[in-house]
Amino acid sequence: MQDEMAQLLADLRGARDFEAAAAATLRRLQAVAQEAVASSRYAARGRVLRGIVHLRPGEAYRSLAALEVGAAEITDASVGTPFFTSATAWRAVVEHRCAVSIDVNVGTVQPHAPNAPVTGDPGLAGFNSHESRQRFLGRHATHVCVLPLRTPGGDIEGMISLEADCLAAMGQDFVWLEAGDRLQLLADVAAPYLARLPQRPVARPEVDEFLPVVGRSMAELLPILRVFALQDETILISGATGAGKSRLARWCHERSNRRGKPFETLDLVTVPEDLQMAELFGWKKGAFTGAVRDAPGSVARAEGGTLFIDEIDKLSLKAQAGLLHLLESRSYRPLGEGTGERQADVRFIIGTNADLHAEVRAGRFREDLYYRVNVLPVRMPPLQERQDEIPLWAQYMVNRRHRERSPDGHARLMKEAEPAGGEPLAGQPAAARQHRPPRLHAGHGGARGRLGRAGAAREARRAGAGLRAGPRCPAAAGGAARGRAGLRRGGAPPQCPAGSGPGGCLPRHGAGPRHPPGGPGRGLQAAGP
Question: Is the whole-model pTM more than 0.85?
Fold first, then answer.
């Protein structure tokens, strides 16, 4: 064992990135597992298949690396069979803070802690579902060992799963318990390296209409999102309001096997508690006062496609029970429908800006539902952590605005738009004011002008949130207070410096007036061609 640890430490010290450390760790763990199988009664009938490192600090996936036995390099998880373990296994690892063994065919999860119960409760989120079992058996894995990645501070920042094929050991103890201590010791040695080493640099991915701007932080997140997008498991996207969760959910849908099918969004912020069940499942005529006709819910409208439920923390406890039943059984009943249930062929993506684990501790969110939606969790970085995207979002908004006004020509930001002193543009208006204002230049058929300094950052934040509205009128930003003061003194209300156009400025999501498409934007002073 001392030699194994010394060899692993030497490999880890030479690793320059997460992928190299993961490959070194998995090779050592596979060697120990293979040795245990060779010395067991299953030597002629069992084989170790692969190992997978799941790095998910703070309850969100950051990296995923899989290594087949005998392979020289980490497997590209974005192609071929997906490499995921079950949500039940992760829950058991976190609760017992120890390794667990899974017998796939029998459907049991056995913690390695002394006197820990063997679980097989079908109400638990994950493994006992038909989808989880088929996912394991589809890659010939009959027995799985899941090891926690325990950092020196005591936190569990991920897990390592080892998969083996041995039908002869169905319903019996495999080699995981016997080799568990050696395996866990190697995992503990590797955990600090896996948690702290940076990811291997990735080429900046191609942009498209669903994600037109990708900065450095998002480029690191997209490889694992591509893997998640191809699965039918629930994705949980956490992030601050305005970070762009809805845009990212649509991006995942368009890269899934359900692309071309419906994509439905249910924003629970806009739905009163007493109507949440109706909005989810629909209703029959006469189900409640005002139900004058049958109406499909979000689940029915998303049939065959994807349903994005945003702000899941706003869901009432009653509606949480209904959603839990839907996720477990893939069936539901519209309000007022007498008997029977309808089947749902829907992939779910969940969004939240809250700490759902804290909501569970506070009693405002069901623990069983939490583990049901927390299968493939990712964290959407706020714009403050994606400052390199600010000028790119500004360019995108300028181009989009130009296309709304004129289909001819093109628009670009001049050199003056670059930050003063070479500093990155910040995501906050106060910081944005420290830089010179971008200058807009349009090609033939366009116009020239200046884009307000704070306006570029503000429009970038709106674009990141997936909002399709145009720029705000400058009369709304800072002019409102002055207007109220002027009216008290008998003065005139603030006027839009570019003119309101026919119909005047239009309200935008309660954030102040804006110009309709085709009118001048914020701070754009129209000039001749």
Answer: no
